Please model this.
Amino acid sequence: MKFSAHPELLELLAASYALGTLRAAARRRFETLAREQAPVRAAALAWQSRLASMAELQQPVAPDPVVWTRIRNLIAAEQQQQAIGRQRIAAAAPASVPARGGWLRNLALWRGAAAAGVAAAVIATVVGLRFGEQLRNAPAEQYVAVLSDDSASASMLVTFDPKKQRLLLQRLGSYREDEDKSLQLWALPTGGAPRSLGVLGRDRTLSLPAHEADMRAVPALAVSLEPRGGVPGEGGPTGPVLFKGALIEKTL
Model:
């Protein structure tokens, strides 16, 4: 497929791939296209870079003391494995008179390999434990929306965390409202009037309180341009709607 004729489709697929909502065969096909076509690869990398900054919103987690015990055990096991490997190599090697400095060079080589193996084990353990901790703290369900403008360019990423009862928003585009204006987020329920979810600040990332029961009944979100400070939520948007998009329920 040539995405040059369908840039909006490429943006949606790249966003879904980075979010993890593109699954199974569709994900494999996208990865194949990314290997073959540079624009597809660039779009995927751009979305991954945008979403990576959302990690800044997560609270730091102090590792449990047992983490260090596991690291020490892994280091000890790695060192023991390497010692056994050296003994087997020495037993299998034919006896010979080493060249001058040969044993010293071999010893330095083994020490370097051992240090590299221990470092790799420590890094893998720490990364694995942190990833496991993140999975335990991750929400069981998450609602995701990519809000786009009239030209189908992604302008805002919205996610809902039911554990914290918060909406997390990240600006993706370059749009900036004037000083006398504010952006306001609206829920677009089926068959009902738009409901205000809050007025957005000027930071690239921010969060708003929300309730899961309310989010379940919201198939889409929109952002309108309003007078500074926003407008009352009962009357709906008074200014133009700049961005909108479907709210997708994602089960992790």
The two ends are 30 Å apart (CA to CA). The chain has three domains: 7-57, 66-137, 143-249. The domain at 143-249 is CATH 2.60.40 (Immunoglobulin-like).
